[in-house]
Design a protein that fits this description.
It is built from two helices and five strands. The protein has a single domain (2-76), classed as RelE-like (YaeB-like fold). With 77 residues, the chain is of the alpha+beta class. The two termini are 16 Å apart. It has a five-stranded mixed sheet.
Length: 77
């Protein structure tokens, strides 16, 4: 699995508090091992974001992503 960070994701990530960044790194570690781990509450989005998926960092934050053509590339947006 290859994770690619969009410039928008990187800008938003820099603005987060250190506690949220720590939680995001833990969630990403779980995601790398198993994207559908129940702790992440990974789900497909609907509406205008119907091409995207998301997983939870905590109760307030989530990470939105989409799969590349090969399903091995994951783009965090």
């Amino acid at each position: 699995m290859k994770i690619i960070y969009s410039p928008r994701f990187e800008r938003a990530y820099k603005k987060l508090s250190d506690d949220v960044k720590d939680d995001a790194e833990l969630a990403e570690g779980i995601f790398r091992k198993n994207p559908l781990d129940a702790r992440l509450r990974t789900h497909k989005l609907s509406g205008r974001l119907s091409d995207y998926w998301s997983f939870s960092v905590d109760f307030e934050y989530r990470i939105i992503f989409y799969y590349g053509k090969s399903k091995e590339d994951i783009f965090l947006t």
